[in-house]
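User: quick one - fold this with pyridoxal-5'-phosphate bound?
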Amino acid sequence: MRRDETSIVHAGREFGPHPRPVNPPVYRASTILFDSLDSFLDAHGPDSKTLAYGRHGTPTARCLSDAVAELERGYRSALFPSGLAAITCALTAYLKPGDHLLLPNSVYDPTRQAAERTLARLGISATYYPPEVGASLDSLMTDRTAVVFIESPGSLTFEVQDTPAIAGAAKRRGAITMMDNTWATPFCFKPLLHGVDVSIQAATKYIVGHADVLMGIVTTTEAAWPALHTVVQDFGQCVSPDDAYLAQRGLRTLAVRLKQQAKTALHLAEWLRQRPEVERVMYPALPSDPGHAIWRRDFSGASGLFAFTLHAAYAGRFARLIEGLSLFGLGASWGGFESLIMPGRLHMRPLPTGIPPDVLLVRIHAGLEEPRDLIADLEAGFARLHEPRRYPYRASQG
Ligand SMILES: *Cc1c(COP(=O)(O)O)cnc(C)c1O
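Assistant: Sure. C-alpha cells for the protein plus pyridoxal-5'-phosphate:
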C-alpha cells in the first residue's frame, strides 16, 4: 500500500486513456446516452459501476469518492451535498424506530439537534456519554443501542475519545460505530482501522480546503456499505460535478496544508498558553492537553483547529480582541487556507470539568499565513483588551 502523501496525489485519477489531462474533466450530466440496449441494461444493473444516470454519480464524482475510499482504507465512499447531510443520512441508514443512539456530549451541535428533533420524531432515542468514557461505554448501552457515534476530538472543547475502546465495546454488543472525523481528516486518523464501521468527513473543511464548497463524504467497511448505499439512493443524494471537481483538486494538497497548518496551530496554542489573559487552551497536540496521550497513540497528526478560554475578568471584553484583527476572519466553518476566529458557546450538559457555565470559548483556525504575522495580529488584539475604551471599538479609530 502506497503511503498517504502519495495516495493523496495519485488516487482516483484513473478516469480515461492517455493522452488526457491531469485532472478529471467536469462531466455535466443528468441523461447518459447508450448505443445499444444491452449496454443500457448492463449500466442500470444493481452492481454496475458504469455511468448510468447523473444522480448515481458522474466520472468526476467517482474520481473523488475512489480517492477518499483509498485514503480511508474503506470499501466505498458516498458523496453528500454537505457534511451535515452526510451525518444525518448515515444515522438514518443504521437506525430504525425503537432504536437507541449514543452520542458524545461534545458532539457537533447540529448533529445533536438532528438527533433531538428529526430522529426523535422517527422514534429513535438518543442519550449522551462523556467523551472520556472509553470502554465503560458498555454500561451506557442498552439492548436497543444500534449506533454509537464518535466525534474526536469534540467540537469546540476538543476532548480526545478512546476510539478503539469505544468501538470495541459497541462491537461486543452488536452496535454500529460511526465517527465524525472532520477534525483529523483520514490523513491524520483512519477510523476504519480503529474498529469504526462508518467514517464521516465534512469535506467542506480540509478536503475542499479553500472555503468555497460544501460537501460531506461517508466511507464504510464492506459489511456496512449496503445499508448506506440504500439510503443514498432513496434520498437521492448526489453532488454537482463542479463541486466534485473542486473537492478532488483540494484533496491533492491536503497533506502539505495539514502539516503546515498543524505546525502553525501548535505555535499559536503555545503562545496563547503563556498569555496571562488566557485561562485554558484546548488542543490535543499540546503536551499539556488532557487528551494528548491518546491523541499521540492513535493519530498521526493534528489539524489547525483549537480553542481557548479567557479569564473571567476579560470575558466581557472579548469583542475588543476580535474586532480589529486584520488576518483572522470572523466566521463559521474552517479548514480553508486562511485563519479564522470565532466565539463558541457550549451546548453540552453537563459541562466538562473545569469549564464554568456560559463560558465563552474562542475558536481559532490556523491558516497558511506566516505564524509571526498571526501572532502580531493576536498580540495587538490582546493589547486592546487592556485599553480602557468602551465597546464598540475598532483599531482604525486610533
Ligand atoms: C462543519 C462540520 C460539520 C458539517 O459540515 P457542513 O458541510 O457545514 O454541513 C460536521 N461535523 C463537524 C465536526 C464540522 O466541523
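One thing worth noting: The CA atoms of residues 99 and 124 lie 5 Å apart.
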